[in-house]
Amino acid sequence: MQKIKEKTKQTVLRVKEDTELLAFLAIHFNGKSRNALKNMLTHKQVCVNGKPVSQYNYPLHIGDSIVINTGKVHLEFKHSRIKLVYEDDYLIVIEKAEGLLAVATDERKEETTAFSILSNYLKHKDPHNRLFVVHRIDRETSGLLMYAKSREVQLALQENWHENVTERVYYAVVEGKPEKTEDTIISYLRQSKALKTHSSDADDGGKEAITHYRVVRSNEDYAMLRVELDTGRKNQIRVHLQTIGCPIVGDKKYGASSSPIGRVGLHARTLAFKHPVTDENLRFETPIPTKFNALFVKNKEK
Prior knowledge:
Blueprint: E1 10-14, E2 19-20, H1 21-28, H2 34-42, E3 46-48, E4 51-52, E5 59-60, E6 65-69, E7 82-87, E8 91-96, H3 114-125, E9 132-133, E10 142-148, H4 151-159, H5 161-164, E11 165-175, E12 182-191, E13 197-200, E14 207-218, E15 222-229, H6 236-243, E16 266-274, E17 281-285, H7 290-298
Parallel strand pairs: 10-16
Antiparallel strand pairs: 1-6, 2-5, 3-4, 3-6, 7-8, 8-10, 9-10, 11-15, 11-16, 12-13, 12-14, 14-15, 16-17
């Protein structure tokens, strides 16, 4: 992979011991006065784990990522359907709500998407800013999603996807319970003209798809699975779980007969990758949706 030249207007630091933000900045910028450091905070030039912070005594913990922007001021991002998890000069990681498209499709070109929301956010900072799709998750799926801020970073991530991305974990709530508590599903997937993905055990010209799962919780009616991907085919998890007789709850398209939580029970929980510019190993994890766990509180677990 070709190394991308870093920009100089941003400093990325990693917290090595618990402390407070101003004390941390004072150590790393010992040539600046406390007033100068507080001014940086006031003008939203300091981000902790992707979020601008102005509180000088904000608590820091080991492993926190600190980004110092010495160029343009960060704008705080707020949206009801997107949570900003991480942002630097090169990429953005978000947590997307279910029901929101990651990017426009031929069928839904005019619909508001995570891509359009983030693009508007970046253009408010600078009209020349652009956003690029790195990967996608289904409209019905909630969870972690990454975008690039340049074509160069996009290609660096996509062309070395399996080398860069070290962990992609989903949590799924399914009808019934798999016969095996842990297994790997391998098949060939192809999409029909009706835009539905079909699975075949034989190589019929489709793309090979590999899904690993493990049962985490279960009761008489449902099971929660931890799912990890070796490949990233469209609707892969949904069709693979259908093939073992355990469709994801709420997923009528792929065989579900119930919708106990009012949504498709699939969440992209963990995303870990090597930063294509800084070479830093980044790992992000979101909580399992409350509705997923509530289903097992209401129904006695086995």
